[in-house]
């Protein structure tokens, strides 16, 4: 897929109501995005699919929703206050900023100088690139009515720390035994120097993270298990296998807390980029929180197999980034009977709208039948749209662009035998189904 295809996807996302520029009527807020009617459903469906696989389908993972604001000492213990930094380079002439490591690697897609003609950073004769300096990525704010040093708090840059400080709370109340996991879906905030590529890298984003607590010595085995499980999950969502790969972190890439780590990468139009991370964090986090809080976080095996500080294997995915993968991977342009159509081939589980109901004509009572069918589908918890504007072909095309898997047409025959035509988005095949059986027919395929 070419880079200009990304522009078409961004255009489609706005036109169909997936993603809008935040505060657009005021000129927009840089790298902040609002999810529209279809986008919010897609993102929720991604998060729900993750939650279902991680929590509902397993008996060894518990859910948690920790607060965004946490005690400042949490971030001292985790190393975020001292080590959560990127090297920043600023041009004294145009005030544009870049990450120094990206400039050195030559891999930053939008790293060009903003002045015309466009050149690489520092390429103009009067450019003045300053020396790299470290820039902390956490957003700082104040708790309480007075803005003073004692009231400083931070918007969390990840959800993981909430799982660590609640490790014993969750373990004891759920009566889980190690190995077990804690899963969270929630907002995180990072003051990125160079966000970009649409919703790929933003300053405010939603994470789906799972911390799996294991006995030391079994961590390598569990790391391999979760590596394979997470890749399998993405493929089961319909993401094309040849667009996914593993990237093992080398010694110079490992985070300070990691024994081993890898990324599941996806081939975007702008290159291979991280979709999800799997990390062996050892006992770093629990040990640090035990040290800084003065509270023992040791796990005592109820079967008498000793006490220990668990190691942690983490899986961490951006929900918005996974939604972007679904949009990019599902987008295609094709020709049908001499006409071009744009299709979002989303997995039906992820599709914002599962079915669209059309009356073939605006008479003979067909709109009333179609409205009743739409209402019945919604009552059955099947998101359904209604459309009676324009030719049936135009209505099909509108739903193809939105990723709707099935279109249901109420026609003249419906009045005679209570059946409707269901047309499949991908195969274009059509079948007749009884009015009362439509919800069951769709539910089977979901």
Quick one: how many beta strands?
Answer: 23
CATH architecture group name of the largest domain:
2-Layer Sandwich
**Main sheet specs:** 7 strands, mixed
- What global shape is seen? globular
Instruction: Let me know the average pLDDT.
Output: 90
Output the CATH class name of the largest domain. Answer: Alpha Beta
**CATH third-tier fold name of the largest domain:** BirA Bifunctional Protein, domain 2
The N- and C-terminal alpha carbons lie at a distance of 28 Å
Please indicate the count of domains.
3
What are the key terms here?
about 450 residues, alpha+beta, BirA Bifunctional Protein, domain 2, Rossmann fold, 3 domains, seven-stranded mixed sheet, 23 strands, globular
Describe this structure in words.
The longest helix is centred in the first third of the chain and has 20 residues, at 37-56. This protein is of the alpha+beta class and 446 residues long. It has helices at residues 3-16, 37-56, 72-78, 80-83, 100-105, 160-165, 167-174, 219-236, 284-293, 319-330, 366-379, 392-402, 412-417, 438-445, and strands at 19-21, 33-35, 61-63, 85-90, 97-99, 133-136, 140-142, 152-154, 180-189, 204-214, 244-248, 260-268, 271-282, 299-300, 307-308, 311-318, 331-336, 339-344, 355-359, 384-386, 406-410, 419-424, 430-434. Strands 3-9-10-16-13-12-11 form a seven-stranded mixed β-sheet, sandwiched between helices. A five-stranded mixed β-sheet has the order 20-19-21-22-23, with helices on both faces. The protein is built from 14 helices and 23 strands.
